[in-house]
Every structure is written in structure tokens, then in C-alpha cells.
Amino acid sequence: MTVREVGVLAIGAGPANLALAVAIEESGSPELAAGTLLLEQSPDIKWQRDLLMPWARSQVSFLKDLVTLRNPSSRFTFLNFLHEQGRLDEFVNLGTFHPYRWEFSDYLQWVATSL
């Protein structure tokens, strides 16, 4: 067992804790970021793992991602994720504010690996 003192301990890599981790990362305090630990029991991040049918859409607008309302210019926005994955044009042409659930799950995984 490793003993580590932390300032912030977040258990579970769900949307709330990922949003917290991004806010800490963007806070401008390297000490706070270094003293933060996010624990997840699964080897990967899947948002609502059992509800990722290919046709299922989120009921929430992509504008309510982890950061846009707090910091629209963040590199962690859903739109930046789509851009980096080469999927922005496809999403924009869907004509909806509601992404597929699997796509939002991919976004959360991307954020977790980008921190």
C-alpha cells in the first residue's frame, strides 16, 4: 500500500469529478493540481456504461459539457474534443444539440486521459 497525502480526493471519474478535476487543472495553481487525486475503479471511463446503445442520444445539450458554462475557451470543451477527433463537421451537420450517448462517453474518456 502506498501512502500519499492529497489536498483533494475525488472518488469516481464521473462527470462531476471530471469537471472538478478540469476546474482545478485550469485554476492556475500547480500546487493544487499536483495535490489532487482522482480514483476510478474501472480501467476505462464509460459514462452510464450499460446505456450506450448506438442510437441513444443524451437528453442534455452539448453546451452543458464539463466546462463550457464555466470557461467557453477551455481546451476541454466538447467541441474541442470533436475537433481533435475529426468529428466536428459530422456533429454540426446532425442539426441537434444532443450528442449520442456513446459520443459523450468518449468525450469523458478523452478528458480523463488529457488531464
3D architecture notes:
The chain has 115 residues and is mainly alpha-helical. It has one domain. Helix content is 37%, strand content 7%. It has helices spanning 15-25, 30-34, 78-84, 88-92, 101-114; strands at residues 8-11, 36-39. The longest helix is centred in the last third of the chain and has 14 residues, at 101-114. It starts with 7 loop residues before the first strand and ends with a helix.
User: Low-confidence segments, ≥5 residues, pLDDT <50?
Assistant: none
Relative helix content: 25-40%
Order of helices and strands: EHHEHHH
Q: What is the rounded distance between the termini?
A: 24 Å
Number of strands: 2
Radius of gyration: 15 Å
> What characteristic shape results from the CA principal axes?
globular
Task: Write out key terms for the chains shown.
115 residues; mainly alpha; two-stranded parallel sheet; 7% strand
In short:
The chain is mainly α.
List the helices and strands and how they pair.
Elements: E1 8-11, H1 15-25, H2 30-34, E2 36-39, H3 78-84, H4 88-92, H5 101-114
